[in-house]
Amino acid sequence: MQQKEQAEILKAKGVEPCLAVVIVGENPASKVYVAGKIRDCEEVGITSREYALPASTTQDELLALVSELNNDDSVSGFIVQLPLPSHIDEKTILDAIDPKKDVDAFHPINVGKIMIGDYDFLPCTPAGVMELLEEYKIDISGKECVVVGRSNIVGKPQAMLLLHKNGTVTVCHSRTKNLSDVTRRADILVVAIGKGEFVTGDMIKEGAVVIDVGMNRNDEGKLVGDVHFESAKEKASYITPVPGGVGVMTRAILMKNAIKAAQLNQDK
Ligand code: NDP
Fold first, then answer.
1. Residue nearest to atom 31 of ligand 1 (CA)
2. Ligand 1 pocket, residue 246 CB under 6 Å
3. Which of 43, 88, 135, 219 is deepest in the core (most CB within 10 A)?
Protein backbone atom coordinates (compact mmCIF):
# COMPACT_ATOMS: atom_id res chain seq x y z
CA MET A 1 0.00 0.00 0.00
CA GLN A 2 1.26 3.46 -0.84
CA GLN A 3 2.31 5.72 2.01
CA LYS A 4 -0.33 8.29 1.12
CA GLU A 5 -3.08 5.74 1.66
CA GLN A 6 -1.48 4.52 4.88
CA ALA A 7 -1.31 8.10 6.15
CA GLU A 8 -5.00 8.52 5.37
CA ILE A 9 -5.92 5.31 7.19
CA LEU A 10 -4.01 6.45 10.26
CA LYS A 11 -5.65 9.86 10.18
CA ALA A 12 -9.08 8.23 9.93
CA LYS A 13 -8.20 6.44 13.18
CA GLY A 14 -7.30 9.76 14.78
CA VAL A 15 -3.53 9.27 14.48
CA GLU A 16 -1.72 12.21 12.90
CA PRO A 17 1.66 11.10 11.53
CA CYS A 18 4.19 13.83 12.26
CA LEU A 19 7.85 13.89 11.31
CA ALA A 20 10.16 16.42 12.96
CA VAL A 21 13.44 17.30 11.28
CA VAL A 22 16.22 18.94 13.26
CA ILE A 23 19.01 20.73 11.44
CA VAL A 24 21.90 22.48 13.13
CA GLY A 25 23.98 25.04 11.24
CA GLU A 26 24.16 26.13 7.64
CA ASN A 27 25.49 23.12 5.69
CA PRO A 28 24.09 23.81 2.18
CA ALA A 29 23.72 20.12 1.22
CA SER A 30 21.92 19.39 4.51
CA LYS A 31 19.54 22.28 3.89
CA VAL A 32 18.65 20.84 0.48
CA TYR A 33 18.06 17.38 1.98
CA VAL A 34 15.88 18.79 4.76
CA ALA A 35 13.81 20.85 2.31
CA GLY A 36 13.29 17.66 0.26
CA LYS A 37 12.13 15.74 3.32
CA ILE A 38 9.64 18.46 4.25
CA ARG A 39 8.33 18.46 0.65
CA ASP A 40 7.99 14.67 0.69
CA CYS A 41 5.96 14.89 3.90
CA GLU A 42 3.59 17.36 2.26
CA GLU A 43 3.16 15.07 -0.72
CA VAL A 44 2.42 12.00 1.39
CA GLY A 45 0.20 13.80 3.87
CA ILE A 46 2.51 13.64 6.87
CA THR A 47 2.68 16.70 9.10
CA SER A 48 6.24 18.00 9.31
CA ARG A 49 8.01 20.24 11.76
CA GLU A 50 11.37 21.75 11.08
CA TYR A 51 13.71 22.84 13.86
CA ALA A 52 16.51 24.91 12.31
CA LEU A 53 19.05 25.66 15.02
CA PRO A 54 22.07 27.94 14.70
CA ALA A 55 25.58 26.45 14.33
CA SER A 56 26.38 27.82 17.80
CA THR A 57 23.84 25.43 19.44
CA THR A 58 25.52 23.52 22.25
CA GLN A 59 25.35 19.77 22.68
CA ASP A 60 23.26 20.22 25.83
CA GLU A 61 20.79 22.44 24.00
CA LEU A 62 20.44 19.86 21.25
CA LEU A 63 20.04 17.08 23.80
CA ALA A 64 17.28 19.09 25.46
CA LEU A 65 15.44 19.33 22.12
CA VAL A 66 15.88 15.58 21.51
CA SER A 67 14.39 14.91 24.94
CA GLU A 68 11.50 17.27 24.22
CA LEU A 69 10.76 15.49 20.92
CA ASN A 70 11.04 12.06 22.58
CA ASN A 71 8.35 13.11 25.04
CA ASP A 72 6.10 14.96 22.63
CA ASP A 73 3.20 12.63 21.80
CA SER A 74 2.28 14.71 18.77
CA VAL A 75 5.64 13.83 17.14
CA SER A 76 5.64 10.27 15.82
CA GLY A 77 9.21 10.23 14.57
CA PHE A 78 12.16 12.56 14.08
CA ILE A 79 15.58 12.84 12.60
CA VAL A 80 18.60 14.91 13.45
CA GLN A 81 20.20 15.77 10.12
CA LEU A 82 23.87 14.79 9.90
CA PRO A 83 26.59 15.98 9.84
CA LEU A 84 26.44 18.02 13.03
CA PRO A 85 28.88 20.84 13.79
CA SER A 86 32.18 19.44 15.10
CA HIS A 87 31.61 20.59 18.72
CA ILE A 88 28.63 18.21 18.99
CA ASP A 89 29.23 14.48 19.38
CA GLU A 90 26.96 12.74 16.88
CA LYS A 91 26.92 9.46 18.77
CA THR A 92 25.76 11.15 21.99
CA ILE A 93 22.87 12.73 20.10
CA LEU A 94 21.86 9.62 18.15
CA ASP A 95 21.98 7.51 21.32
CA ALA A 96 19.56 9.91 23.02
CA ILE A 97 16.80 9.47 20.41
CA ASP A 98 13.92 7.21 21.49
CA PRO A 99 14.41 4.06 19.33
CA LYS A 100 10.66 4.03 18.60
CA LYS A 101 10.93 7.50 17.04
CA ASP A 102 14.26 6.84 15.34
CA VAL A 103 13.10 6.90 11.72
CA ASP A 104 16.69 7.01 10.44
CA ALA A 105 17.37 3.72 12.34
CA PHE A 106 20.72 4.97 13.64
CA HIS A 107 20.13 4.21 17.35
CA PRO A 108 22.22 1.23 18.60
CA ILE A 109 19.03 -0.67 19.52
CA ASN A 110 17.74 -0.35 15.97
CA VAL A 111 21.15 -1.20 14.53
CA GLY A 112 21.22 -4.35 16.69
CA LYS A 113 17.72 -5.30 15.61
CA ILE A 114 18.79 -5.14 11.98
CA MET A 115 21.62 -7.55 12.78
CA ILE A 116 19.17 -10.20 13.98
CA GLY A 117 16.59 -9.44 11.30
CA ASP A 118 13.89 -8.30 13.76
CA TYR A 119 13.41 -4.62 13.23
CA ASP A 120 10.93 -1.77 13.30
CA PHE A 121 12.90 0.54 11.05
CA LEU A 122 15.54 -0.01 8.42
CA PRO A 123 18.05 2.70 7.54
CA CYS A 124 16.69 4.57 4.54
CA THR A 125 19.43 4.14 1.96
CA PRO A 126 20.16 0.41 2.31
CA ALA A 127 16.45 -0.32 2.59
CA GLY A 128 15.88 1.74 -0.56
CA VAL A 129 18.48 -0.36 -2.38
CA MET A 130 16.70 -3.55 -1.29
CA GLU A 131 13.36 -2.21 -2.55
CA LEU A 132 14.93 -1.39 -5.90
CA LEU A 133 16.29 -4.93 -6.20
CA GLU A 134 12.90 -6.32 -5.29
CA GLU A 135 11.07 -4.00 -7.70
CA TYR A 136 13.25 -5.20 -10.57
CA LYS A 137 12.89 -8.84 -9.42
CA ILE A 138 16.62 -9.30 -8.99
CA ASP A 139 17.25 -12.53 -7.18
CA ILE A 140 19.83 -12.14 -4.41
CA SER A 141 19.91 -15.68 -3.06
CA GLY A 142 23.31 -17.32 -3.61
CA LYS A 143 24.59 -14.35 -5.62
CA GLU A 144 28.03 -12.78 -5.14
CA CYS A 145 27.19 -9.44 -3.56
CA VAL A 146 29.99 -6.93 -3.10
CA VAL A 147 29.44 -3.80 -1.03
CA VAL A 148 32.14 -1.16 -1.37
CA GLY A 149 32.09 1.06 1.72
CA ARG A 150 31.54 0.10 5.36
CA SER A 151 29.92 3.14 6.94
CA ASN A 152 27.42 2.60 9.72
CA ILE A 153 24.66 4.25 7.73
CA VAL A 154 25.14 2.60 4.35
CA GLY A 155 27.78 -0.10 3.83
CA LYS A 156 27.40 -2.17 7.00
CA PRO A 157 23.59 -2.33 7.10
CA GLN A 158 23.55 -2.88 3.33
CA ALA A 159 25.76 -5.94 3.74
CA MET A 160 23.51 -7.26 6.50
CA LEU A 161 20.33 -6.82 4.44
CA LEU A 162 21.87 -8.62 1.47
CA LEU A 163 22.97 -11.39 3.81
CA HIS A 164 19.41 -11.72 5.17
CA LYS A 165 18.35 -12.33 1.56
CA ASN A 166 20.95 -15.10 1.28
CA GLY A 167 23.51 -13.22 -0.77
CA THR A 168 27.15 -14.23 -0.43
CA VAL A 169 28.41 -10.91 0.79
CA THR A 170 31.86 -9.31 0.66
CA VAL A 171 32.45 -5.88 2.17
CA CYS A 172 35.29 -3.74 0.81
CA HIS A 173 36.79 -0.56 2.27
CA SER A 174 39.76 1.73 1.92
CA ARG A 175 42.22 -0.97 3.06
CA THR A 176 40.93 -3.64 0.67
CA LYS A 177 43.72 -4.94 -1.51
CA ASN A 178 43.16 -5.43 -5.24
CA LEU A 179 39.70 -3.89 -5.07
CA SER A 180 38.94 -4.45 -8.73
CA ASP A 181 39.57 -8.19 -8.40
CA VAL A 182 36.84 -8.26 -5.77
CA THR A 183 34.38 -5.96 -7.55
CA ARG A 184 34.76 -8.02 -10.76
CA ARG A 185 33.40 -11.04 -8.88
CA ALA A 186 30.17 -9.26 -8.04
CA ASP A 187 26.82 -10.26 -9.49
CA ILE A 188 25.38 -7.40 -7.43
CA LEU A 189 27.72 -4.49 -6.75
CA VAL A 190 26.72 -1.72 -4.33
CA VAL A 191 29.10 1.22 -4.18
CA ALA A 192 28.97 3.75 -1.32
CA ILE A 193 32.36 5.39 -0.88
CA GLY A 194 31.88 9.10 -1.58
CA LYS A 195 34.45 9.27 -4.40
CA GLY A 196 33.12 10.63 -7.69
CA GLU A 197 33.15 8.16 -10.60
CA PHE A 198 35.70 5.96 -8.84
CA VAL A 199 34.37 2.59 -10.01
CA THR A 200 34.88 2.24 -13.74
CA GLY A 201 33.59 -0.24 -16.31
CA ASP A 202 36.75 -2.37 -16.16
CA MET A 203 36.02 -3.09 -12.46
CA ILE A 204 32.62 -4.60 -13.27
CA LYS A 205 31.66 -8.10 -14.37
CA GLU A 206 29.67 -8.42 -17.58
CA GLY A 207 25.98 -8.49 -16.71
CA ALA A 208 26.36 -7.32 -13.10
CA VAL A 209 23.71 -5.30 -11.31
CA VAL A 210 25.32 -2.03 -10.24
CA ILE A 211 23.84 0.14 -7.52
CA ASP A 212 25.47 3.52 -7.13
CA VAL A 213 24.80 5.12 -3.75
CA GLY A 214 27.36 7.92 -4.11
CA MET A 215 26.45 11.57 -4.39
CA ASN A 216 29.38 13.81 -5.17
CA ARG A 217 29.99 17.13 -6.89
CA ASN A 218 32.59 16.94 -9.64
CA ASP A 219 34.92 19.81 -10.63
CA GLU A 220 32.17 21.36 -12.76
CA GLY A 221 29.76 21.24 -9.82
CA LYS A 222 27.72 18.46 -11.42
CA LEU A 223 26.20 15.75 -9.23
CA VAL A 224 27.87 12.40 -9.94
CA GLY A 225 27.83 8.98 -8.34
CA ASP A 226 30.68 6.81 -7.13
CA VAL A 227 30.42 4.84 -10.36
CA HIS A 228 31.56 6.09 -13.76
CA PHE A 229 28.16 5.67 -15.40
CA GLU A 230 29.20 5.80 -19.06
CA SER A 231 31.78 3.00 -18.86
CA ALA A 232 29.84 0.97 -16.28
CA LYS A 233 26.62 0.88 -18.29
CA GLU A 234 28.45 -0.98 -21.06
CA LYS A 235 29.00 -3.89 -18.66
CA ALA A 236 26.02 -3.78 -16.31
CA SER A 237 22.69 -5.48 -16.91
CA TYR A 238 21.11 -2.91 -14.58
CA ILE A 239 22.63 0.29 -13.24
CA THR A 240 21.18 3.09 -11.12
CA PRO A 241 21.70 6.66 -12.32
CA VAL A 242 22.80 9.60 -10.17
CA PRO A 243 20.70 11.60 -9.61
CA GLY A 244 17.38 9.77 -9.82
CA GLY A 245 18.38 6.35 -8.51
CA VAL A 246 19.09 5.44 -4.89
CA GLY A 247 18.44 8.99 -3.65
CA VAL A 248 14.79 8.77 -4.67
CA MET A 249 14.41 5.46 -2.87
CA THR A 250 16.09 6.82 0.27
CA ARG A 251 13.50 9.57 0.46
CA ALA A 252 10.65 7.13 -0.08
CA ILE A 253 11.84 4.89 2.76
CA LEU A 254 11.99 7.83 5.16
CA MET A 255 8.31 8.41 4.51
CA LYS A 256 7.64 4.71 5.03
CA ASN A 257 9.49 4.85 8.36
CA ALA A 258 7.58 7.96 9.41
CA ILE A 259 4.29 6.12 8.85
CA LYS A 260 5.64 3.09 10.72
CA ALA A 261 6.62 5.33 13.64
CA ALA A 262 3.10 6.73 13.79
CA GLN A 263 1.74 3.15 13.85
CA LEU A 264 4.20 2.10 16.57
CA ASN A 265 3.52 5.10 18.75
CA GLN A 266 -0.21 4.58 18.31
CA ASP A 267 0.16 1.06 19.72
CA LYS A 268 2.29 1.97 22.75
P1 NDP B 1 31.50 7.46 4.53
O2 NDP B 1 32.53 8.49 4.20
O3 NDP B 1 30.96 7.41 5.91
O4 NDP B 1 32.11 6.02 4.21
C5 NDP B 1 32.83 5.80 3.04
C6 NDP B 1 33.27 4.36 3.01
O7 NDP B 1 33.94 4.14 1.78
C8 NDP B 1 34.26 3.98 4.12
O9 NDP B 1 33.92 2.73 4.63
C10 NDP B 1 35.60 3.96 3.41
O11 NDP B 1 36.50 3.00 3.92
C12 NDP B 1 35.20 3.53 2.02
N13 NDP B 1 36.15 4.00 1.02
C14 NDP B 1 36.62 5.25 0.84
N15 NDP B 1 37.49 5.28 -0.17
C16 NDP B 1 37.59 4.02 -0.64
C17 NDP B 1 38.34 3.41 -1.67
N18 NDP B 1 39.19 4.11 -2.43
N19 NDP B 1 38.19 2.09 -1.88
C20 NDP B 1 37.32 1.36 -1.13
N21 NDP B 1 36.59 1.88 -0.12
C22 NDP B 1 36.73 3.20 0.10
O23 NDP B 1 30.36 7.61 3.44
P24 NDP B 1 28.80 7.21 3.46
O25 NDP B 1 28.66 5.74 3.55
O26 NDP B 1 28.07 8.07 4.39
O27 NDP B 1 28.38 7.70 1.99
C28 NDP B 1 28.96 7.16 0.82
C29 NDP B 1 28.43 7.89 -0.39
O30 NDP B 1 27.04 7.70 -0.48
C31 NDP B 1 28.63 9.41 -0.37
O32 NDP B 1 28.84 9.86 -1.68
C33 NDP B 1 27.32 9.93 0.16
O34 NDP B 1 27.06 11.26 -0.26
C35 NDP B 1 26.38 8.96 -0.49
N36 NDP B 1 25.11 8.80 0.22
C37 NDP B 1 24.00 8.82 -0.57
C38 NDP B 1 22.76 8.65 -0.01
C39 NDP B 1 21.58 8.63 -0.91
O40 NDP B 1 20.48 8.84 -0.45
N41 NDP B 1 21.76 8.37 -2.20
C42 NDP B 1 22.59 8.48 1.44
C43 NDP B 1 23.83 8.37 2.16
C44 NDP B 1 25.04 8.55 1.55
P45 NDP B 1 37.13 3.07 5.43
O46 NDP B 1 36.03 2.59 6.31
O47 NDP B 1 38.27 2.13 5.38
O48 NDP B 1 37.51 4.49 5.65
1. 194
2. yes
3. 88
Give yes or no for residue 99 CB within 6 A of ligand 1: no
* Residue 28 in this model has a pLDDT that exceeds 70: yes
* Cβ atoms of 77 and 103 closer than 8 Å: yes
Select from 124, 147, 195, 213 the residue to mutate for testing ligand 1; criterion: most ligand atoms less than 8 Å from CB.
213
Mutate to test the pocket of ligand 1, among 81, 91, 147, 173 (most ligand atoms within 8 A of CB): 173
pLDDT tens-digit series, residues 77-89: 999 999 999 999 9
What's the rounded mean pLDDT across residues 27-47?
Answer: 96
Ligand 1 midpoint to CA 173 (Å): 9
Measured in Å, residue 213 CA sits from the centre of ligand 1 at 8
* Claim: this prediction has a pTM higher than 0.70: yes
CA angle 202–207–211, rounded 5-degree value: 75
Ligand 1 center to 6 CA (angstroms): 33
Q: Kindly write down the DSSP assignment for every residue of 172-240, as one continuous string.
A: E-TT-SSHHHHHTT-SEEEE-S--TT-B-GGGS-TT-EEEE---EE-TTS-EE-SB-HHHHTTT-SEE-
**In the 3-class helix/strand/coil scheme, how is 92-112 assigned residue by residue?**
HHHHHCCHHHECCCCCHHHHH
- Spatial distance between the Cα atoms of 254 and 212, rounded to a whole number of angstroms: 19
On whether the CB atoms of residues 254 and 44 are closer than 8 A, the answer is no
CA of 77 to the centre of ligand 1 (A): 26
